[in-house]
Each structure stands twice: as structure tokens, then as C-alpha cells.
Amino acid sequence: MNKIKIGLFGFGVIGQGIFQVLEKSRNAHAEIVKICVRSASKPRSIDRAYFTTDPEEILSSPSIDLIVEVIDDAAASYRIVKSALQRGIPVVSGNKAMLARHLPELIDLQRKHNVALLYDASSCGSIPVIRNLEEYYDNDLLLEVKGILNGSSNYILSRVFDHNENYDAALAQAQALGFAESDPSFDIEGYDSLFKLVIITVHALGVYVHPDRIFTYGISTIHDSDIQYARDKRYKIKLVAQVVKVSDRKFTMFVMPEFVTKSKYIYSVDDEYNGVVIRGECYDRQFMFGKGAGSLPTASSILSDIMARQHDYRYEYKKQHYLDKPEYTTDVELKVYVRYAETDVLRILHFERITEQYRSEECNYVIGNIKLSELIAKRQALRNKDLFLANFQSFFNDLDR
Amino acid sequence: MNKIKIGLFGFGVIGQGIFQVLEKSRNAHAEIVKICVRSASKPRSIDRAYFTTDPEEILSSPSIDLIVEVIDDAAASYRIVKSALQRGIPVVSGNKAMLARHLPELIDLQRKHNVALLYDASSCGSIPVIRNLEEYYDNDLLLEVKGILNGSSNYILSRVFDHNENYDAALAQAQALGFAESDPSFDIEGYDSLFKLVIITVHALGVYVHPDRIFTYGISTIHDSDIQYARDKRYKIKLVAQVVKVSDRKFTMFVMPEFVTKSKYIYSVDDEYNGVVIRGECYDRQFMFGKGAGSLPTASSILSDIMARQHDYRYEYKKQHYLDKPEYTTDVELKVYVRYAETDVLRILHFERITEQYRSEECNYVIGNIKLSELIAKRQALRNKDLFLANFQSFFNDLDR
Predict the structure, then answer these.
(1) Do B139 and A25 touch (CB under 8 A)?
(2) Looking at residue A2, what DSSP letter applies?
(3) How far B137 CA sits from the closest chain A CA (Å)?
(4) What residues have CB less than 8 Å from B178, skipping those under 6 apart?
(5) Closest Cα to residue A390, out of A349, A343, A345, A335?
(6) Residues B161-165: what's their mean pLDDT?
(7) Residue of A282, A299, A311 with shortest CB distance to B282
(8) Does the ipTM surpass 0.95?
(9) When you count CB atoms within 10 A of the terminal residue's CB, does the N or C end of chain B come out lower?
(10) What's the predicted TM-score (pTM) here?
(11) Is B92 helix (H, G, I), strand (E, B) or coil?
């Protein structure tokens, strides 16, 4: 068998991980032949001859069979992937921000140029979510995908709820360990989870929803009183992404903190781990759990995509062609908890029904049913307020685990 | 797209489940056209015209594209599957006992007649273990697959350890609920787990080991004193199947009760659920969890195999062709607990090292290191004795979860 010759874009932690994993896997039949990086002068751990700063050296090389792209600049990633696909070169990518914004065009390009783009590593690192949604749950029985898709925010919440630390100390520790970026907003405001959810939904239900249309709320405004409220009730707060069918013809999706009870699978997804629950009409719930990020776990997921190319594997996007694809709706009610300071939240948010209200010198909160469309309409008004919002309970079925 | 025409063998709980699942899945493009059953006179829930008692009516029908075989008679299953493959008809099978005994021949037949045999439903029902080992973990980084593969025995142990019932009451309840057969030995003596482990190992490491060569010990001889011992130490006893690389060149495998500590993933696999931990060199541990048995979960797994056939999917058995496939060894030491009554266990079993010994009027036990080969050699001598044996701790790595 001929070795697959790989042109690699990016040699950060993930890129170096791929190099290591390919060396470890003696039966891989794949080798990196060229690596495109931004900086020519940076010291490198491997032979300088591998490196170039000119993308064309890879993109127009006739000897390269596959491009693996793991740079963290979404705009540059888009240009490289598009250009490769247009030239008929298959690509493995890990860039969720880029994929979430450009998937429809990239799917068209795959069809038009009869070429594959694989990206299992983009969602939940070493957990094979995309591949299983595409190949194993490749039918219309799927009802819901819900999970903890971001390791950094989960690490922070886990320090708070499993190790009784305060939020600021936990965030600082996550940064010290390299789990959270020095600008942690991507992880902590929920955007990383959002991008993964957009990609997952394409393979779960065959429908693409642009990230801007999806309600996303993070954990950066959490206060001690929110944490105390959760602890008193024996909940953990988790940052949860979910896509769920609310009827035969409709589904909804959002990213939001959630009060999670002990009976649920994701309750025990601690530290930097990811966990995904896949629920379907006949198989009930499947739970997949593993390391969602990090150099080697992500690299091993990329290895699976590289190996899949040896057998000419590509995503078929079969569900996009189902006759009765469900439609995205935000016309659903959620039960949410909103803790607020000075702002009177009831003047901003219209609740369908309020079930609890609490005021004190320390904090105020309200719990009630609210339309998801109302939350989306008031996104701007909620921003930069001393306010924390969390999904109070899973609303869509009683037996939810 | 033309509908796949299916000839079904067996119309028990699983067969009826497949019928239901295909009706529910509107995009399945597959239909059952003929069903072969043993009894012509039994009342049926669907139109009589579907049924035949003559296998040839399916096997020699030119209009049938795929055979789905879910009968519980392993000998008859073998004849049907072999005959279908020899005629070039692809097969989906759920019969683990048959597969575990005949896989090498059935793999040869697939190659010789260029035809597919899929059997994801045979191992862990709705959890996609085989497919992921074959496609996603299709490299040589895999170190271990370990799990709870049998729902009935796990249900019984879960009643004991999570609900404080006694063993006999739990067994009776499992039988009443239909989780355990009226002759429960297949589940409870570990053979069901063993057969699944044999199949899993073919796809995990590319090596077939005949079930007779593998140490298998069940839970039927468990006593109150064993349960009390575990409870005192805050362990649960679980029936665990595992295959694990013990060096670059060697692996071992066995099915045995194990004392499981709270820190391990499988500790929280309760009731009739299955859970599988996949450990690899770069991705660490993946945990997959779901319903391992039952009519609809198994049927939905069979549906995945049927759908896969629409894209001409077949197992490639790539790992069988690795140059450095590991070898099966029983020359490994385990740390086991052996509780015994009259029999002096030390006269039967040669321990390498004894670390604990306890004698009382109620019970006697010994804990120590023993060779797996010694356990295999003494299998007959251990049988029909008032004796219970359990893996005391995972021996192969300290950080085992």
C-alpha cells in the first residue's frame, strides 16, 4: 500500500500532536511531507526541511495526496480549505469556527469537485460524534444530541462544583494549565460549543443553521449566589449545547448554562472532559464520553480521518436529502433562571409565566417560562448586564437523563 | 433509490423489533419481503403472507438483496449465514454465539465470495462498538477494550449493589422482567460476554481467539459474604469482559467478576445497561454507554447495518493484516479474590503470592496474585464448588478508570 503523503498547515500543539501520533502508529501508511507555518524563524522540534511559509508549496504540489489543516486563524483556514477543494485535493480540518460559518459552501464544493472534506476532530476531539451521527445514526430516528462540548468551561465549572473552588480561582487555574486561552471568551461565552453544535446538527438532522441564529449564553457572568443556589439544590451548573426535535417537523437548538441534576449522564462529566448524549426513538440514550481537546486526543481523531481517506471515505450528508427534514424553530418555551442585580429583568424580558421570584439585598432571581425567540430578541439588552441566565430544567421530556 | 428487499430469519422479540423500526424510519429505503420462522401455526401480529418455514424460499429468491438473521439457534444460524454467503447474498446477523465460534471461516467466505457480513448488533446492542473499532479506532494505538457487555447479569448485580436486594430476589426479578432467560446460565456464567469479547477482539486487535481458550467465570456462585465484603470496602461487583495489551507484542483477555471502585467509569453502569471503555495510546479513554439489549435497541442497531449496506459498506478487517499483530498470552498475573467453603482452595490453585487470607466460621477467602494460565488449567476443578472468584483490581495500570 502506498503511503498517503500529507501537507500539514499549522504546527502548534495539534500539529505537533499529529506528527507524534503518526510516528507512534506503525501501521498508519501516512506521512507528513511538508508543513506550512506562519513564522519562518520560530525554533522547531523537527528538521527545518519540512517547513515552508508559502501555502502554494503544498497546494500546488502534485505529490501531496491530502491536506491536514489545524491552524487557529479561521479566515486563513477558510482560504486554504476552499482553495484545496477547488483543486480537488481532499482535506482534513479541525477548525470549528471556520466550518460552522462555511459548511454549506464547503459541502457544495465537495460535490462540485468530487472531493472529500473530513472534520471529525472539530467536534469533541477524540469522541467520534460526527462519524457516528453520519454512519451509525444514519436514519431518521434521532431525536436529540445534547452535551458538554467545551472542555475549558467544563474544567472551570468542575473546579467550582466538584472541588469547591470559587469561579475566579478556577478560571485562573484553567488558564495556567493551558485549558483556557488568555482571552477565554471563545470557550467561556459558549461560542466554541455553538460552532460544534452547528456542525453536529448538519450530521444529526441534515439541517444547517447559521451560528448567528442560535441563542448562545456563556458562564462569564456567574456569581457566587448562582453557585450557592445550585449547591443548595444539589445541582451542578454545566454549559450545555443541545439540538432537539420538539415535534415531527420541528427542532430547536441553543447553548446555555443548565442546572443539571444527579440523575443525568452529563452530571458526571467532570474536569476537561466532554460528554455527549444521543437520544433516538428506538435506541433511547447513548452516552459517549472522552477527552474533547488537547494535543494527542485531537491528533488521534485527525488520524482516524486520515486513515478513513485510505479507504476513500467521505461524508455523504444523506440526511440533507430526506424528504421530511425538520425545520429550525425558536418558538419553544424554556424554563429559565435569571439572576440579576440593579437591572429589573422583568422590564427587559417577557416571561410567559413566572413560577418563582426572589429578592434580597444580596441578589434577585426569577424562574419562569420564556420563549426562546424572546431570549434571542433580547440578546443585546442582556449583554453587559450583571445578570446570569441558566436553563432551569430540561423541558422537552420528563425522563431526560 | 431502490428499496433494499430483506429476507428475515426469526420473528421473536428482535425480529418484531426490526419490523417496527423499519416502519418508523420513513427514510430507510428498506423493506422486509419474507420472514422465515420455525412454526407455521403460531399466531402472528402481521399478515400471514410474509411467512414461510422453508429457508430456501428466501435463500434462493432472486429478488432478495439482503438477509437479516436473528434466530436464537446458533447451529441453524450458522447454516443459514454460510449458505447465504456462499451464494453471494449479504447478511446482517445478531447471533454472537455463532459468530464467536465461526468468525474465521465467515471472514474467509466474505473474501472468497466478495460479499458482506455485518453484525454490529451482536455486541452491546445499540452501542456502536464494532463499527467504531473497525472504522474510527482503525489504527494500532488501541490498548484495551473493557466493559460490561451483558445487561442481564448487570441488572442482577445492580439490584444487589444499588438497591440492596439479595441475589436470589434480584435473579427472580430479572427473570420476571424478561432480562434473564428461564435458563439464565448463558448470561450469568459469562458466556454471552465471552462471545461478544471474542468478536470485539477481532475488530480491536485483528486477532481471533477461540472462546474455549479464554478464561470465563460468572456470578452464579456469589454469596452474601462476597457481597458484604464488597459493600464494606465500597466496591461494586460487576461482571467485566476485557481484552488488554500487556506489552507491544502480547495481549490477554478474560471474563470475570471484578471489584469496581467508584472512580471507574463502569462503576456507574447500572441496571440493564452496557458500558464499554476503549483505551488507546493517544486518546486515553473513551467511554460508551447505552442499552445493550432489548427488542428496539437491538433492532435499531440492525437498522444501522441495513442502512450501511445501501452504501455497500463492509468490514475490511484491516487489523488482521498488520505486520506486528499482538499475540494472545495467558502468562500474566492477576490479583484475585477467592472465597471458598469446604474446599481448601490453596490445594487446588497455585498462587504466585498471597497478600491476604481470612478464615472464619462463616467464610474463608484468600487474595493474591495468580497466573491466568493457572486459572485456565484449573477451570474444571473450580466448577461446581462453593467458591467465588473475582478480579481484585485492575492489574495492568494504576490509573485505570
Answers:
(1) yes
(2) P
(3) 7
(4) none
(5) A335
(6) 92
(7) A299
(8) no
(9) N
(10) 0.92
(11) strand
B303/A141 CB distance under 8 A? yes
Question: Which chain A residue is nearest to residue B316, measuring alpha carbons?
Answer: A311
For residue range A44-93, list pLDDT tens digits in order. 999 999 999 999 999 999 999 999 999 989 999 999 999 999 999 999 99
Q: How far is B293 from chain A (nearest CA, A)?
A: 10
For residues A203 and A145, the answer to whether their CB atoms sit within 8 Å is no
Sign of CA dihedral A325, A328, A332, A337: positive
Beta-sheet pairing, B236-245 with B142-148: antiparallel
| B250-260 and B327-328 beta bridge pairing | parallel
Looking at residue A177, what DSSP letter applies? T
Nearest to B303 among A139, A286, A316 (CB): A139
pLDDT along chain A (401 residues), means of 10: 91 94 89 95 93 97 97 95 98 96 98 97 89 89 95 94 92 81 83 97 97 97 95 96 95 97 89 93 90 85 92 92 92 95 85 94 92 96 90 59 48
The Cα A46–Cα A393 span in angstroms is: 51
3-state secondary structure of B215: strand
CB A230 within 8 A of CB A236: yes
Q: With DSSP H G I counted as helix, E B as strand and the rest as coil, what are the percentages for chain B, rounded to 5?
A: 40, 25, 35
A167's grid cell = 469561579
Question: Which residues, other chains included, contact A210 with Cβ-Cβ below 8 Å and sequence gap of 6+?
Answer: A101, A198
Given an 8 Å threshold on Cβ–Cβ distance, is B290 in contact with A286?
yes
Torsion sign, CA atoms A162, B233, B267, B295: negative
Residue B387 C-alpha cell reads as: 467458591
CB of B71 closer than 8 Å to CB of B96? no
> Within 10 Å of residue A267's Cβ, how many Cβ atoms?
17
Chain B residues with CB-CB distance to A284 below 8 A: 126, 290-291, 296-297
Which residue in the block uniquely carries the three cell numbers 443585546? A380
Contact A140 B26 (CB under 8 A): yes
The amino acid present at A3, given as its one-letter code, is K
Please indicate whether, in this complex, the C-beta atoms of A324 and B27 are within 8 angstroms of each other. yes
**For the segment A83-139, what is each residue's pLDDT rounded down to a tens digit?**
999 999 999 999 999 999 999 999 999 999 999 999 999 998 788 999 999 988 888
Q: Do A322 and B131 touch (CB under 8 A)?
A: no
Average pLDDT, chain B: 92
Interface residue of B138, B139, B145, B278 to substitute, partner A, most A CBs within 10 Å:
B139
Enumerate the residues of chain B whose CB falls inside 8 A of the CB of residue A286.
126-128, 288-290
**Between chains, do B284 and A308 touch, taking CB under 8 Å as contact?**
no
Q: Report the C-alpha gap between B220 and B53 in whole angstroms.
A: 37
Q: Is B182 helix (H, G, I), strand (E, B) or coil?
A: coil
Query: Are B304 and A139 within 8 A, CB to CB?
Result: yes
CA atoms within 13 A on the CB side of A349: 34
- With an 8 Å Cβ cutoff, are B25 and A141 in contact? yes
Task: Return the C-alpha cell found at A207.
Answer: 439541517
- What grid cell was written down for A153? 468551561
**With contact defined as beta carbons under 8 Å apart, do B363 and B343 qualify?**
no
Report helix, strand or coil for B66. strand
CB A167 within 8 A of CB A160: yes
